[in-house]
Amino acid sequence: MYKILTLNNISVKGLSRLPREQYEISSDTTRPDGILLRSFKMHDMEIPDSVAAIGRAGAGVNNIPVDQMTKRGVPVFNAPGANANAVKELVLAGLLIASRNIYPAMRFAGTLEGSDAEISAAVESGKKQFVGSELPSKKLGIIGLGAIGIRVANAASALGMKVIGYDPLISVENAWKLSRKVQQALSLDHLFSQCDAVSVHVPLLDATRGLVSKERIAMMPDGGTIVNLARGGICDDEAVLAALDSGKLNAYVIDFPTAALLKHPKVVSFPHLGASTEEAEENCAIMVADQLREYLEDGTVRNS
Ligand code: MLT
């Protein structure tokens, strides 16, 4: 019998890949063989010696001490691409919320009171402050042309946006096999200098920390939008805030709110919602449960 410790809620469909005759699944930390989790931060946790493999039901693994586990010979599995469609949808929602002032407009509508005639009059005079702009008038820069970036490129292009992409690891030819919609940027600086909106789809690594910097924001046309549903730290938040205050940037769409950003009127803030759809949760859980099972039962390592 294998013992699996779950540190977050994991989709039932994923857990059903681990047959109950062979797997005991619980939050009991005593001598687990494997761990399944989503965003639980494992860095401060004492990870039992019995753990042979870890499965993250998501793409990022920065909540897991991967180096420490590698030294121990413990593979860390993840689910790249399994939630890409969900993230893509929220990127588009963020772009639309920002460009059409949807959030402040909805808040305004929610405060209206009185008779239908009074509400109608208030709507007509109030709506002027929420005049937006349309996506086809904008160029979107996508940093990171993996499963999410390519989907965002195709969807934004279908909505009429011009799309330019940059990825240091994916060749022009390979990106083009996935999307003929993406024009290739020559460099990151080239991308920033061209784009009204920039969306980042890279993991948080030493090489990507602060990638959206003061200098690069300064290269953008005035009134731009930055979308970061990937990880906090990829953008220099202080630089973004200064640019929002000066009017250089018009909006900042994030999935990892912080105290400094949360209340800013130009910040569109989601509570780490990018991968939170039933479909994505199922896809991710199935992908990592299968990997965990294959590893525990016959030592097969797929995508660690
Ligand atoms: C991811 O890394 O794919 C997401 O953080 C997954 C999640 O929301 O749990």
Automatic annotation (TrEMBL):
Reactions listed under catalytic activity: (R)-2-hydroxyglutarate + NAD(+) = 2-oxoglutarate + NADH + H(+); (2R)-3-phosphoglycerate + NAD(+) = 3-phosphooxypyruvate + NADH + H(+)
Name of the protein in its database record: D-3-phosphoglycerate dehydrogenase
Function field: Catalyzes the reversible oxidation of 3-phospho-D-glycerate to 3-phosphonooxypyruvate, the first step of the phosphorylated L-serine biosynthesis pathway. Also catalyzes the reversible oxidation of 2-hydroxyglutarate to 2-oxoglutarate.
Family: Belongs to the D-isomer specific 2-hydroxyacid dehydrogenase family.
Pathway membership: Amino-acid biosynthesis; L-serine biosynthesis; L-serine from 3-phospho-D-glycerate: step 1/3
Part of the intact protein present: 1 to 304 of 392
Primary enzyme class: oxidoreductase
Alphabetical UniProt keywords: NAD, Oxidoreductase
EC number: 1.1.1.399, 1.1.1.95
